[in-house]
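ok so heres the complex, two chains, lmk if somethin looks off
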Amino acid sequence: MNKIEQQVLQDGIHFRSVQDTKFKTFRLSVNFLLPLKKETAAANALIPFLLSRCSREYPDFTQMSRKLASLYGASLGSNVGKLGSMQVLTISAGAIADHYALQGEKLTAELTRVLCGAIFDPALENGLFRENDFRQEQRQTLEQIDAEYNDKPSYALKRCVEIMCANEPYGISRYGSREDVQKLTSRQVTAAWKDMLRTARVEILAVGNLHPAPIAGALQEAFGKIERAYRPVTETHTFHRLGEIPRVTEYQDVVQGKMVLGMRVAVSQSNQEELVPAARLMNTIFGGTPNGKLFLNVREKMSLCYYCGSGYHAASGLLFVQSGVEFANMAKAEKAILEQLQAVQNGEFTEDDIAAAKRSMINNYQTVGDSLVALEGWYLAQSLLPKVQTPEEYAEKVHAVGRDEIVQTAKGVQLDAVYCLKGQKEAAAK
Amino acid sequence: MSEMQEVKIDQTRDSYYQMRHSSGLQVFVLPKPESHSTYAVFGTRYGSIDNVFRRSDEKEVTRVPAGIAHYLEHKMFENQDGVDTFARYAKTGANANAYTSFDKTCYLFSCSSHFYDSLEILLDFVQHPYFTEQTVQKEQGIIGQEIRMYDDDPMWKVLFNMLGAMYQTHPVKEDIAGTVESIAEITPELLYQCYHTFYNLNNMALCIAGNADPVKVVELCDKMLKPSEDVHVERIFAKEPPEILKARVCQKGSVATPVFYFGFKEDASRRPTTAETVQTDILLEALSGDISPLFRRLLDAGLINESSFSGNYFEGPGYACVIFSGESKNPDAVAAEIQKELASVRRNGFDPALFADAQKAVYGDAVSNFNSPELLANSMITSYFAGRSIADAVSAAANATAEDLQKRMQVQLLPQNAVLSIIEP
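and the predicted structre for the whole thing:
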């Protein structure tokens, strides 16, 4: 069975563990949360990639990789994400549990040591990240940004977010802009790393088949050596668009068009938080699953889109409808999607629809505990809320939502941006 | 009815149960009582490559249009009573889906409660096809759009360009969904014909992993499954020569950086064994994984990046190749480096310490795979259709030797069989 523990290591540093022996593996992740700002986003984004590359003890990529392979293919990973108006810098590690090592190796202790070495004791030269390491990671980040262009559905979503949230933190790319990444220096990233260790809010998660106490101890000791000057961040989200909503069409060498409708949802984690479960249900009924209105009507009945679905971001109060549409059908598809929204706002859904949406969401919450990555994601998102809840507790809340609350949250949804990606031939014809 | 047989995996302390059900269906259940979720997949050994075949009760060879297996998968979700299958699952709360690959079609769901109700839906709808002229016609629009969506995916295009240059006759080179032209030929009669040929329970398997009781699963099978007649299908493929068609294929596409697939065709007259696939995994880890000298050289030269470069083994009935793929400003230079490294490893073998680390890494992966009901159920069905077993993978990783790797290299990664496919801006 799983056992959840949490403790505060220091002001602004939280350690949370979910211990469960049903897993063959465990995962550790150290998440640094910083305000998302244009001036710092690029330098911050490079930090986790530089840290997970090597450390003073394993001073190049190959030595670090060999060390991890010898721990039965352990992983040391890095990620940059956005959560509301925060940038989340993650350094994570995972391996099979000690129990499954063939020669009784102490994998958890060893991997914790490697992880702490990577975060707190990187390979520096004259006090700075080494130029060669820095160049390598800068190049790879630029290539990651370029690669976003290749995956058209995600590219279209990214563009819609940028256009709709142009004047808000959420509109900043998680990697920072290409130009800002290009201008970086090793000195700036080293300074950002030190600043991150001192000031960031830190959420540490240890999940799976492990004993949390020694891990918490090792991290407590490591953070104890840092002179912390924690700067708490509070989520403030108010945005009122004046004038017309932005509509942008871009052209590329594509055969199928992509259309993304960006919407504002009045309910978010910083506004009427108690209605968030209702807003999630509203999204599920609208377009969150293959049983949602968008899939059943816009795709199946009207054959207007190959894919058509919606996603709601509770942290920022945003909702995006993504679709793959023939160029000629875009106006029709937009109208059809907005009609489905109108239908939800008018309460045109049955008790069965509500029950089905609840079952689908509760099913997802009940399975969070079966995946280490899902557990990490869950507790990281929860850590921003006034009260941390288990997926089971949250499932109860969803269960209790009534029709009126769903309609109420739907009425607070407003179209706020339209992005279309069309083919070159269309552009030439104009 | 035959007995249920328990298969133990000592290293991970798991067991699964397998049986040939009296209806003809092969059933596997891997119970994970501590898991909340259960994952079930009901699949047929019928994919996009099976377009020319002969039934054991017929003389004539049948040819059907490309893309029909995938089309059939889409149409299986409609039912005679007009209630869409997703709507039926909505009543149990399961997450349902389906996929068609080169060599199989699978219907699946995952759930955290009402497992047996969902399993009943799965077993029911897959056994009850219902197509009309009208519904078949309507699907052409949706699938046409799906084909166009893949046209815009450079990673999909670069793969099929490689397969097209590698295979002279084998249908693996054709798109799984077919073409807008080929699917226009599909009729309800053809769909029924393919259904009755390939959705014979003797040609299918049910694989379940998670919070499920094998005894109850079999009871439900007894209730739901109609015994299939003992008809077998012979799949007919034109003879595939061992040689590749073209060593390099390059196309312009909507990409920011060039993407490439660099594959090595190999003999595929029989499917590789479990031990052989695991040995190939270790070989790829040592040759081109994060720990390899090759990976480091390519990285230092700025020729690849960590997020996109990988080496994989891709194989099925009548086709097999090792593929290196990724993004690179200069794919030709990457291919040349890989060829150089292969020649050197063939001459000098692997450093024993490097081999040991590669082996440990693959062993760790094999153990980790037992975390996930989804991965387990899908691995069970893939392994069964390929004549392999998930039970042997963990021990095969522990027992592989450096000599095994050299032996694999005698039949795979041969320099003259390489094809480089590039999509460039």
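quick notes: Chain B has two domains: 5-235, 248-424. thats all i got rn
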